[in-house]
């Protein structure tokens, strides 16, 4: 990967998109929207953040116009406090009316809009998924750890263009 991000002009800070998704009415399933709410309050430059109950194919329009995309969702299992993995466009676009995966959004962004950002999935570990509108204490702790990491990575990227490929 070259030092400049795909679609980024030399000397321009990369445009970062945060897409947090999940249902805040199902306890820790609301970690994605909670992350968006908190990251927006940090006032980071060149950052756009949206939340929704689920990813939609229309998200590909926004994805295509950014250089880096972070998908943020709750994880019912897995590493605590969070895990991060790179996401690539799917070789086939598959979705249903209730499930659209980040890989499909990236494929649509590339095929329909010519956008090919670097993308990551931030899966924040949750513990309770009942019909309650509140995060569990453990999920709140995991959210804060995840947001600390994410904010640091965004700040490094924006402050030091030569370190972009480390993000």
Provide a quick synopsis of the model.
The chain contains four helices and five strands. It has 167 residues and is α/β, with parallel strands linked by helices. The chain has a five-stranded mixed sheet.
**If you consult CATH, what is the topology?**
Rossmann fold
- The arrangement of helices and strands along the chain is EHEHEEHEH
Gyration radius, rounded:
15 Å
CATH architecture: 3-Layer(aba) Sandwich
What form results from the Cα inertia axes?
globular
CATH-level-4 superfamily name: HybD-like
Approximate helicity band: 25-40%
**Estimated share of beta-strand residues:** 15-25%
Overall tally of domains: 1
User: Runs with pLDDT <50, length 5+?
Assistant: 1-7
Distance between the termini: 11 Å
Question: Helix/strand-derived class?
Answer: alpha/beta
| Count of distinct strands | 5
| Main pleated sheet | 5 strands, mixed
Strand neighbour order, sheet with most strands: 2-1-3-5-4
Number of helices: 4
CATH class: Alpha Beta
User: How confident overall, as mean pLDDT?
Assistant: 88
Describe the protein's topology.
Elements: E1 16-21, H1 31-40, E2 47-52, H2 59-64, E3 68-75, E4 82-87, H3 102-113, E5 118-125, H4 137-159
Parallel strand pairs: 1-2, 1-3, 3-5
Antiparallel strand pairs: 4-5
Describe the structure.
- This protein is of the alpha/beta class and 167 residues long.
- The protein has one domain: 3-Layer(aba) Sandwich (Rossmann fold), CATH 3.40.50.1450.
- The chain has four helices and five strands, in the order βαβαββαβα.
- The protein has a five-stranded mixed β-sheet with strand order 2-1-3-5-4.
- Strand 1, helix 1 and strand 2 form a beta-alpha-beta unit.
- Helix 1 packs across helix 4.
- It is globular, with a radius of gyration of 15 Å.
